[in-house]
Design goal:
The structure holds two protein chains of two kinds. Chain A is mostly helical. Chain A has helices spanning about 1-30, 40-65, 70-90, 90-115, 120-140, 155-160, 165-185, 185-195, 200-205, 210-235, 245-255, 270-285, 290-320, and strands at about 145, 160, 165, 235-240. In chain A, a hairpin with a 2-residue loop joins strand 2 and strand 3. The chains are: A mainly alpha, B alpha/beta. The structure holds adenosine-5'-triphosphate and magnesium ion.
Chain lengths: ~325, ~500
């Protein structure tokens, strides 16, 4: 019992370390530029990270299951165009259902390729990334698409507030909580972690490992569709390339959150904190008026540090 | 200079891990050309003591004198350099490399920058030939059965020119022929003055090949005995602190209706027309050489190996499982042979490992009932005397035997009708082994159907009510009652081989 406590305590401190790091970065930015501390900026940070955090929750499943999903950026573009164009055609409710369906369907395809055909997920989702981007361009005709009626209620997802809290932030919190509960408390969530740890053992223990892997991609696809609704309704329109590069931010958030890159371990909450750190940095760079290129470099350095820490932690495990 | 008499002396070694005092005054001495058995129950600290010797762990206290000098190897490479070679209990070969590459990993022969493949393969083959092994240097490890993988590990030790060769349960998955070949090698190395430390739970082997035996208990040294001078009972008494009356327990219950019936099961190139049945309340043994198709038969039943022909009837209902999920749902449990590859989630806790298969039944509403998983763990921890500092201990840190007990618990706790145990006591100490045999018998007496696969003749004879022998993918005989004799078993596993 004593052991259990001290073990969890170490883990707790570790996960909070990231939060502390985020707060320190926040304070540094705030010291340089006082407008950083304003309420509107803080709300803005959260609004910023809604998309990354929601997609990150999905990506956490894929990574715990032992795979990467590089197709999420393109899927974000596709679902963005889909939500706008189908709202114009069929109205918001049908459009939302349809968009979520597109996200899941993409997850089924990627998941089938990785889970049942056992293709390397890096290669498979890299392929999907191009296919989905091409589909987006075909579907939207390569054009920016916007809502016919810019005041239709669906824009509340991106623009509305409940009191001072943006609705997108509320959606993000609800979504992450649900994904977190599924991961930590259900049999399915336990199975995702088990399959990511050793699929063969699962195959021999009454778990359909292929199916579990496939569903992790569906979880990722669904999350991306939700994120697309939040992102596209924010501006009332969608660029066919609006998701470009998002996969990088999302995977960074998951890695910062300390998920095991070889699969088996990870947490939605920690991914959320990872997304928060990225959000603080991005906003900070913008407010300081620094070039976006510095941001890329900074993000890259952070990723390398996170991966290095991950490897070192595993190295010590292997030794014993 | 009494020191020069010994090749190795380890004195008063202490090693603690968080929550465990794994070694607490352990000791061993080895003379040149001596084969020293290292015995003790699961978790006694045998593997840990050896890891302290060759540099994988660093002892907290104590003294190691090797070839007259005090040594303190910081890394396994230093130990290897000095001629201390360890052959691991858990296979550590890299599956996607060839046998030769595995054997010389870290010291591949080369010409300039390029690997000298010819020399590499020749050296590997020479070492393998010396063991009379049919494995070739160019074979891929992933294509080899466990028994041959273990042979490769031993050949690696030979090829690296060991002065002290540590064999950690080397025969746990070797056939008798391979064991004989290994003993041949041990005698050869002995004649060359190599000191050998032989860890095993198999008493007959210890008495056959070893000169002396060091007994450990709870990390402590209890004595080093010259084997010529003591009896089996003395040794067992020293190991487990009591004598053992009977080693095997046979189920003696009411045999009920048929639980499993298999007819004409065939897998191209592996199984041919396999038919048998298992009834409630009986233990059915499967005996044969490694590779006879016993595990493959069970995999086909369990839904993890496709088959081309045959019918499987479970509790009167014809079934064809497309995966283990359906098999588990219908009440089949399967303790597989290869624990590391198909039995364990190494970094996960003991509790999680045990609950893995039964999770769908351990729910409170929609969610997993974690308290219940803990309860279940404690229940089987007690029944099987699992030694782990905590339910949350990652299972990779448990001793081999204790890992096996957790896996057996994993299948018992899901409440099966049929349990298949493939080499259930591999790597399990004699005390626990007889506990497991008792458990198997009581399971059958409680109305389960039990299948046991074992390559150990005494075990299969001791626990089974009925035995099917297999050879080359076929069932060659069904033996029960008085027909179960050594001669009958031997004759029928050689058929067509
Ligand atoms: N790295 C580690 N961290 C924590 N505990 C450990 C570690 N390695 C071993 N132990 C513990 O030390 C004890 C001795 O383990 P060891 O593997 O040496 O036993 P063993 O005698 O080889 O048993 P077996 O016959 O089952 O192989 C066990 O209780 C084990 O759980
Ligand atoms: Mg051991």
């Amino acid at each position: 019992m004593q052991d259990k406590k001290s073990f969890d305590f170490v883990r707790f401190v570790k996960s909070q370390m990231l939060l502390v790091a985020g707060i320190v970065i926040f304070l540094i930015f705030g010291m340089i530029e006082h407008s950083f501390f304003t309420q509107s900026n803080i709300i803005n940070i959260f609004r910023q990270i809604a998309v990354i955090a929601v997609m990150g929750a999905g990506m956490t499943y894929a990574i715990i299951g032992g795979n990467f999903d590089l197709s999420v950026g393109s899927l974000l573009s596709l679902c963005g165009s889909v939500i706008i164009m189908s709202t114009n055609k069929m109205g918001p409710v049908a459009a939302i259902v349809f968009t979520l369906f597109v996200g899941c369907a993409s997850g089924v395809v990627t998941g089938y390729i990785c889970g049942y055909l056992h293709l390397n997920s890096m290669v498979a989702t890299l392929g999907m990334m191009n296919v989905l981007q091409a589909l987006t361009l075909l579907y939207s005709g390569g054009n920016f698409v916007s809502l016919d009626n810019p005041d239709i209620w669906i824009v509340a997802f991106g623009q509305g507030n409940l009191g001072i809290v943006p609705i997108s932030v509320i959606v993000m919190i609800i979504f992450c909580v649900i994904y977190g509960i599924i991961l930590t408390r259900t049999v399915y969530g336990h199975n995702v972690k088990a399959v990511g740890t050793n699929p063969m053992t699962c195959k021999y223990s009454g778990i359909n490992d292929n199916w579990v892997v496939m569903t992790t991609f569906i979880m990722s696809g669904l999350a991306t569709a939700v994120a697309a609704i939040l992102l596209a309704t924010r501006g009332g329109g969608a660029q066919p390339t609006m998701g470009l590069g998002y996969e990088f931010d999302v995977i960074t958030a998951v890695i910062l959150g300390g998920a095991d890159l070889a699969g088996g371990e990870g947490s939605i909450y920690r991914t959320f904190v990872g997304a928060l750190v990225i959000g603080i940095m991005k906003t900070g760079f913008v407010i300081l008026g620094m070039s976006v290129y510095y941001q890329y470099i900074a993000e890259c350095i952070i990723i390398l540090i996170a991966v290095f820490l991950d490897l070192r932690a595993k190295g010590t495990v292997r030794k014993s | 200079m009494a020191n020069t008499e010994y090749l190795l002396q380890m004195k008063n070694i202490v090693k603690t891990f968080p929550g465990v005092r794994a070694l607490d005054g352990a000791a061993i001495t080895v003379k040149p050309g001596e084969v020293v058995a290292l015995c003790g129950e699961n978790g006694a600290g045998k593997s840990t003591l050896m890891k302290c010797l060759y540099g994988s762990y660093h002892a907290d206290e104590g003294e190691i004198i090797y070839m007259g000098q005090r040594v303190d190897f910081k890394t396994p490479d230093e130990g290897k350099e000095a001629g201390i070679i360890m052959v691991f209990q858990e296979l550590s070969l890299i599956r996607d490399l060839t046998v030769a590459e595995n054997m010389f990993l870290g010291s591949l022969p080369h010409k300039g920058f390029a690997v000298d493949w010819k020399k590499l393969n020749d050296d590997a083959n020479a070492a393998l030939d010396e063991l009379n092994s049919s494995v070739r240097g160019t074979d891929y490890v992933r294509d080899l059965p466990i028994s041959q993988q273990q042979m490769v590990e031993i050949a690696r030790g030979v090829a690296l020119g060991a002065k002290i060769l540590i064999l950690d349960e080397p025969t746990s998955s070797l056939t008798e022929k391979e064991v004989a070949a290994l003993f041949e090698i041990i005698r050869k190395l002995k004649a060359q003055g190599v000191g050998i430390i032989y860890i095993s739970h198999k008493m007959d082997e210890i008495f056959e090949i070893c000169d002396s035996a060091v007994v450990m208990r709870d990390g402590k040294f209890t004595g080093q005995f010259v084997l010529k001078d003591i009896t089996l009972d003395t040794l067992i008494q020293a190991m487990i602190g009591r004598t053992m009356d009977n080693y095997f327990t046979k189920a003696n219950g009411v045999v009920g209706e048929e639980v499993l019936k298999v007819e004409g099961l065939s897998v191209p190139g592996v199984l041919k027309d396999v038919s048998f049945n298992v009834r409630k309340g009986e233990v059915v043994g499967f005996y044969g050489l490694v590779g006879a198709g016993r595990s493959e038969t069970m995999e086909a039943i369990f839904g993890v190996r496709p088959y081309s022909a045959g019918t499987i009837t479970l509790k009167g209902e014809q079934v064809k499982f497309k995966g283990s999920k359906e098999a588990v749902k219908k009440g089949i449990g399967f303790v597989t042979e290869d624990r590391k590859q198909t039995g364990l989630l190494l970094p996960k806790s003991c509790r999680e490992n045990m609950a893995l298969a039964a999770l769908p039944n351990i729910k409170k509403g929609m969610f997993v009932d974690e308290d219940k998983t803990l309860e279940i763990y404690h229940k089987y921890e007690k029944i099987m005397d699992i030694k782990s500092p905590s339910p949350e201990q990652p299972i990779v840190l448990l001793s081999g035997g204790n890992q096996q007990k957790v896996i057996i618990g994993k299948w018992l706790c899901m409440g099966p009708d049929l349990v298949i145990l493939d080499e259930p006591t591999r790597g399990i100490d004699i005390g626990a082994k007889s506990e497991i045999h008792k458990l198997v018998a009581s399971l059958a007496e409680d109305g389960l159907a039990v299948i046991v696969i074992s390559s150990e003749m005494p075990e299969i004879m001791g626990v089974s009510n009925r035995i099917y022998t297999m050879a080359a993918g076929r069932i060659t005989a069904e033996l029960s009652g008085d027909e179960i004799t050594e001669e009958n078993l031997m004759r029928n596993i050689m058929v067509g081989a």
